[in-house]
Every structure is written in C-alpha cells, then in structure tokens.
Amino acid sequence: MASTVAATIKRVALITGASQGIGKCIAQRLASDGLRVALNDIATKRDQLQDVAAQIRTSGGEAIVVTADVSREDDVKAMTTQVVQEAGGLDVMVANAGILGPFKPLHEVSAEEFDQIIAVNVRGVMLSYKHAAQQMIKQGRGGRIIGAASMAGRQGFPNIGPYTASKFAVRGLTHSAAKELMQHKITVNAYAPGIILTSMNLYEEDSVNGGPGSTAVKSIGLPPQTPVGEPEVIASLVSYLAKPEAHFITGQTITICGGIMPS
C-alpha cells in the first residue's frame, strides 16, 4: 500500500532564478517531464515569472510563482514553506539563481561588488540547499538538490575573479552536502556550464566581436572559435539528474561546455 501511495505523489521542483535564461529553460523542461514546478526570482521579476508560469500551464504543466531573494534566509525559509503548502512538498531543488558582475580585473573590483556576487551565488545556493534539505529530510522520501556551478568553478578566468571564486565555492558546498545527505537518499550535484546564450552572455558588442556570445568569450580570454550553447543543453542534464533513476549520481559537478575544458 505504501509503495502505491508513493507512486501517486506528484513530484515538486523548485527552481530559483527561473524568470529567464537557464532557469526558465530548466523549469519548462521539468514541467514537461511531469513535475509540478515552483518558479522563483526576486519580486521585481514577478511579471516575468507569471509569463513563464502561463506558458507552462498552456503546455499542460503545473506551475506556481514564489518570489524571494535567495541571499536572505528569511526569504528562502518562507519560499520553501510556501512551495510545500501550495504544491504539496519538495522533491527537487534547483539552486540556479546567480549573477555574473562586471568584467574587470580583480584589482578594480570593489568590496561591494564582490560581496554582492558572493551573497547571491554562494549564500543563495547554501540557503537553498539548507532549507530544501531540511524539508526533504522531514518528508522522508529522498530528493534531488542541484546547484549552478560553472566551468569558471573549475578553472580561473581573467576579469571574472569574484564570479570564479563563487563557483568554486558552489562545487565545495555541493560535494560536502552530498556526503552529508546521502544517508537520507538525497543526491546533491551541480552543473557547470560553459558559454550559454542567455542574457548573461549576450551584449550589444557581439555584433562587432563575432556574433552571439563573442563578447563574453573575448572578455575572459578564450579564443574566438570557442563553442557556445543554448540553455536547453543544461536543462537536459538537470532533467536527468532530477529523475529517480539518477539516484546513484551524487557529489558531482558536471561540466557542459562544448569541450572548452576537460571535466
């Protein structure tokens, strides 16, 4: 009887930073996989979130909107509680929210710029992991926690020092949390994108630098022929990591970069 009941529970995924780019694509993919999705971003992006939710519902999926600033613990706690109350639980946390910051050498970075990147990219991921883990442990049915790292979390690149530091930190958090949560049948993994064609990597200067993504490629010292990808390639990996059959993959940071660097 217990297994029958468990099979009827619709799994719930919470995706932070879901108003655009990789987060939006992940949310759409998980909804198409049959999960009930909760879409998060900051309050000023509520209208964008509502648009994404409407698109998901039009395609036959289920979606709710939960605004929160992931760098604030009270917000993350309230966000998690709202998801559980409105969607019925939490089975997949995708801690996707992140910011890049300006392209500049470290000696020109202000303490305020550094702190902002760390607050969103590191504290935001930590808090998302923490409160998702607490809820998943309480539910007792395991879960999937997935974070946003970067190829810059495997190798330093010029002009994005704070971002690079933040993504190295995400790798460390992911690997430690995986060891802590395996006893609860909760896997913890991260995806490490290369140059993905989202607003984070698209600039007006692309028109003179060689096409979409070329300014970002040039700014971090990569060669002009560096491959770029669409957000769907990340969503595809997250889709698999979120599935029940991915239960034996944990503590991994998987690089998706078109071969720019070895994993």
TrEMBL record:
SUPFAM superfamilies listed in its UniProt record? NAD(P)-binding Rossmann-fold domains
Q: Which GO terms describe its biological process?
A: fatty acid biosynthetic process
> Which protein family is named in the record?
Belongs to the short-chain dehydrogenases/reductases (SDR) family.
Gene3D superfamilies, from UniProt?
Answer: NAD(P)-binding Rossmann-like Domain (3.40.50.720)
- Top-level division of the source organism's lineage: Eukaryota
Among the GO molecular function terms of this UniProt record, one is: oxidoreductase activity, acting on the CH-OH group of donors, NAD or NADP as acceptor
- The species is Wolfiporia cocos (strain MD-104)
Asked whether the UniProt record includes Transmembrane helix among its keywords, one would answer no
A Pfam match is adh_short
State the UniProt keywords alphabetically. NADP
Question: Would the keyword NADP turn up in this protein's UniProt record?
Answer: yes
Q: What is this protein called?
A: NAD(P)-binding protein
Q: Which InterPro entries match?
A: NAD(P)-bd_dom_sf, Sc_DH/Rdtase_CS, SDR_fam
